[in-house]
Amino acid sequence: MESTKNKGELDTLLAIKRKEGALKYGKEKNQLYSDGIDAVATSGILESALNVGDKAPNFTLKNALNQTVSLYDDLKNGPVVLTWYRGGWCPYCNITLHYLQEKLPEFKKAGATLMALTPELPDNSLSTSEKNKLGFNVLSDIGNTVAKNYGIVFQLIEKVAVVYESGFGLSKVNGDNSNELPLAATYVIDTNGIIQYAFLDADYRERAEPSAILDALNKLK
Predict the structure, then answer these.
(1) Is 206 in contact with 184 (CB distance < 8 Å)?
(2) Distance CA 80, CA 218 (A)
(3) What pairs with residue 153 in β-bridges?
(4) Where are the domains of the chain?
(5) Helix/strand/coil (H/E/C) assignment for every residue in 108-160
(6) In degrees to the nearest 10, what's the CA dihedral of 106, 103, 115, 12?
(7) Which of 11, 96, 151, 182 could join 84 via S-S bond, C-beta 3.0 to 4.6 A?
(8) Helical pair 27-41 and 158-168, crossing angle rounded to 10 deg
């Protein structure tokens, strides 16, 4: 599992947003979000999620344009960078998606395909894709079906779920009342379907650095 201690350019951008969030929210809400992160960290999900050396389960999903995309089909053309984001409502996700778009030419140069999965309904994922002008597939993993196969789904603590529901309507965005979200996980999967790099963190404000992803891709050559 990639250590979040290895900071880079993306984290510099995310750090600005973290500081803004700390100032924007009062002490009570900041503590609430911190409690939510702690609950994920102590749930055992980081230990049970798929990790380096595991076989990546295949999946077939629809992208934002309603086209069918299959992991194993794309693996025939080279390694795949598979990343999850919580939704277009998440500022940390939007920053990350935008930065991944900037680095997309480097991923392609390394022979890799980039896929982003989200539990958002297709209409919502399309708006996220358009907003960030993404040049890679954004796939709707409705009900977190694929994310569950990778072991990265958790349930929000009740107080955070209430804030999300009143703030932007999580149940409407995702089309269910599960209050479940995926970790903001990232995997590099080789052409044999084996995970060669895994970024797993309980804190949704932490994300895989593209430089680390590229290092993993270059090691596959």
Answers:
(1) yes
(2) 13
(3) 182
(4) 9-219
(5) HHCCCEEEEEECCCHHHHHHHHHHHCCCCEEEECHHHHHHHHCCCEEECCHHH
(6) 140
(7) 182
(8) 120
The mean pLDDT of 4-33, rounded to a whole number, is 84
With contact defined as beta carbons under 8 Å apart, do 28 and 160 qualify? no
Cβ count within 10 A of residue 162: 14
The percent of residues in the chain predicted with pLDDT above 90, rounded, is 82
Closest CA to 174 of 59, 68, 87: 87
pLDDT (tens digit, 9 = 90+) per residue, 42-82? 999 999 999 999 999 999 998 877 889 999 999 999 999 99
Give the per-residue pLDDT at 6.
53
Asked if residue 127 has pLDDT above 90, the reply is no
The rounded distance, in Å, linking the Cα atoms of 143 and 30 is: 28
> Is the overall model pTM greater than 0.85, yes or no?
yes
Q: What is the pLDDT of residue 2?
A: 46
On whether the CB atoms of residues 184 and 207 are closer than 8 A, the answer is: yes
Residue 4 burial (CB count, 10 A): 17
**9-219: CATH class:** alpha beta
Q: Is 48 helix (H, G, I), strand (E, B) or coil?
A: helix
* Beta strand segments in the chain, E: 60-62, 68-70, 80-84, 113-118, 137-140, 153-155, 180-182, 186-189, 195-199
Q: For the chain, give the mean pLDDT.
A: 93
